Amino acid sequence: MAEVVLQGVSKSFGDIDAVRNVTMTVPDGAFVVLLGPTGVGKTTTLRLISGLETPDAGDILIGGRSVIADMPAQRNIAMVFQQYSLYPHLTVRQNLEFPLRSPILNTPQNQIDRRVAEVAEVLQIGHKLDNRATALSGGEMQRVSIGRALVRNPQVYLMDEPLSSLDAKLRADLRVALKRIQSDLGSTLVYVTHDQVEAMTMATHVGVLDRGQLVQFGTPREIYENPVSVYVATRLGQPRINTLPAGVFGGTPARATTIALRPEHIREGEGKPASVTRVEHLGDQTRLHLTIENHPLVTLVDAHTTLRPGDTISLRPEKPLYFDARGARVI
Amino acid sequence: MAEIAIRNLRKEFGDFVAVQGSDFTIHDGEFFMLLGPSGCGKTTTLRMIAGLELPTSGQILLDGHDVAQMPASARDIAFVFQMFALYPHMNVRRNISYPLVSQGMHRADVRQRVGEVARILGIEDILDRPVGALSSGDRQRVALGRAIVREPKAFLMDEPLGALDAEFREHMAEELRALHDRMGATTVYVTHDQLEAMQMGDKIAVMNHGVVEQWGTPQDIYDDPATMFVADFIGSPPMNFLRFDGPLQPRADSAPLAGAAVPMPRLEQQTHASRFALGVRPEHIKLDDNAAYRGQVVATEYLGTTQIVTLDTPNGDVKARAPSDQPARVGDMTGLTLNTKTLSLFDAETGAKLILDRPHLGTVGVREAAHG
Fold this sequence. Notes:
The complex is a heterodimer. In chain A, 23% of the residues lie in helices and 33% in strands. Chain A has helices spanning 42-50, 92-97, 109-122, 138-150, 168-185, 196-202, 220-225, 230-233; strands at residues 4-13, 16-26, 31-35, 57-62, 65-66, 77-80, 156-160, 188-193, 205-210, 213-218, 242-245, 258-261, 266-281, 286-292, 295-301, 312-317, 321-323. Chain A has a 6-stranded mixed β-sheet, with helices on both faces. In chain A, strands 2-1-4-5 form a 4-stranded antiparallel β-sheet, covered by helices on one side. A 4-stranded antiparallel β-sheet of chain A has the order 15-14-13-16, with no helix packed on it. The longest helix of chain A is centred in the middle third of the chain and has 18 residues, at 168-185. By secondary structure, chain B is an alpha+beta fold. The radius of gyration of chain B is 24 Å and the shape is elongated. The model of chain B is unreliable at 363-372 (pLDDT under 50). Classes of the chains: A alpha+beta, B alpha+beta. Chain A binds chain B through residues 37-38, 167-169, 172, 175-176, 179-180, 194-195, 197, 200-202, 220-221, 224, 236-238, 240, 262, 264, 278, 280-286, 300, 302-304, and chain B through 37, 165-167, 170, 177, 181, 192-195, 198-199, 217-219, 222-223, 234-238, 281-283, 299, 301-305, 308, 310, 321, 324, 361-367, 370-372.
């Protein structure tokens, strides 16, 4: 396992600057999630690390050594793509064994068996080992393709939205499983997703990308509690953080134009009046949709609240975040 | 506008029973969700309401009239499909006008109706654009416009947001719901996404293997699931099941879990079941060092204000939702206190709920371990 360092890495495709001057250190054994919406440069960054793309500028180091000149195969990485690709004529077991059967590795059979069994159990495909790869559902095929990366012991795992095609329950199970495997193996993993729950629950570090640039890098807690911009603040948290004109509650700090409030950081009982527009019962929590001076606002209340649309309540902010006109954090 | 009553509806495809014994009522103006995993019969049910499939038996009462064997065209219902299909060679206005023009409506009336619909959907400024140049959100609004413009008795929607990415989907879900609140049209909506169902629905029918296992308000289904399937399908993470062996006497008020007598609401019925499952939602478990029932932390998942803590207990893995500032490290041993009055009990063999002496949660605050 190894540290991965990007130094001023850029990549353009024609007129499009896909990755712009990204500098980032992925510590040895870290689980780094690159987060951002479609088209933000996440996948390109991953492909640059893997060697599937060559940067226009900058350097990439794996384990302290520049790999810019290395072919993908020489970088000792294992990659999982969004779209699975299996050997259709082989069984699940043969697909999983394949990377270990490489003549260079020369892995003993008992070790292969043990590794395949472990990975199959974690990915809940143990009962399908002797099925043909083509006889699986899409979700099972994707698990096999994750498994094919996990059986190896590379310097770095690179994964591009590997869970996005799975159903919600399986995704939740595999989030926990992947995290556990990664920490058990002590492996370095760079993982791309637009799913904030995956980022928060699995990552040791989250890198937030915006139009090709890395705008913040830190633990999920740092990103959630201390975002550098409105853009970053709106990446994490469900329901999404509320953004309102800074003066709505009075007492605006200098240069602040926007106040941002997490739904759980709004206190009820005193302060500014707001009217209830909709009550959304989600079971474990109830979301209250409100308007305050004609601005929409969402807050969380007791699951069994008696509030109804049309009611008026008073609100005051707690732990507000302030941003300037360009979206940068003020305090 | 319309009330839709489903009575003992059944659909067979050859040997396969797609829907059986379905019974529920969609009241006038409701946003009604048909929820379940793929293959559960929800889309078949919707297609029968639309008239795209004819039921094998049973009734579909539209405002009291049985339409079950009537053709789709005679039902005055608008269907919005999973994939929005627009006429690519027409502009937005002509796409929306089309259903009215084809009915032979006067031009001036068409113009007025299309104008109203465009205002409701907020697409007045793109009426004269070709549909090929629109964003996916606007395309979706246009498709909705074409359904709305007919002013049908009811709308039927089959996973209309299924193909969208998470962020846009949330936005469209809010927009659809707001649209419904303005128009008040009876809407039946098929989804496999429990959060979407909870978020948008006035009522939910949860289906499994062709059977409606429960229908009611989202909060009632969440608080008081009728079966283990429903308890597991609704909620994220789902309800935990702590399994134990019986027998249980009537009026039993505790469950024997790993030697600890864990209090539960009094059992209010006879049961001959021998295996049971005590159901507890993750937010109704408090990590409490002094509790007798114990487990070991095996994983923690940070979610901002809260975290999900997975514990290895004598009854298997249990997930608890705790404030994220509560210390919980992998390997820690801790006690678990269950919020007694929120517990459910099931016959673990049939999966059916057993009746407990429990207050209706709708009237009491139960979220002691609240966000905060």
